Sequence to fold (136 residues):
Amino acid sequence: MPRTLESNMTFRLELFVDDLAASMDFYNRVLGFALGKQQAGNYVPMTNGDVYLSLNLRANLPDDHPIQAVVGERLGRGIELVLEVNDIEAMYWHVQSANWPMSGELQHRPWGLTDFRVLDPNGYYWRITTRRKDDH
Fold:
């Protein structure tokens, strides 16, 4: 019988950004992440609930690194990052009160969830959504 893989995983996401200060402001002020202590090389850990996010400068990547964007390419192209929240309306109004532009307004979707969308200062695309009732 095959062994099952570890089922108690956590997820850490590291985003490489061009403007560390603007990104720290967005994730802290707009999305509510707590700032960790900035470490050597401009590495900044952040958390919100069970979400572990780190920011790092894209300039720290070698030019030939596989995730290095080419000139004119939007960072995070082809990826939708999803945050599930308990109170979508409160999160939506919080983002609006931070005067952050929406990429997609709050709406109920045909698949049964309600969400809205934002781009971070570097172009990373975030969908903020309700939780599925059967997930937790």
User: Anything to note?
Assistant: The radius of gyration is 16 Å. The CA atoms of residues 93 and 106 lie 10 Å apart. The mean pLDDT is 88. The first strand starts at residue 12 and ends at 17.
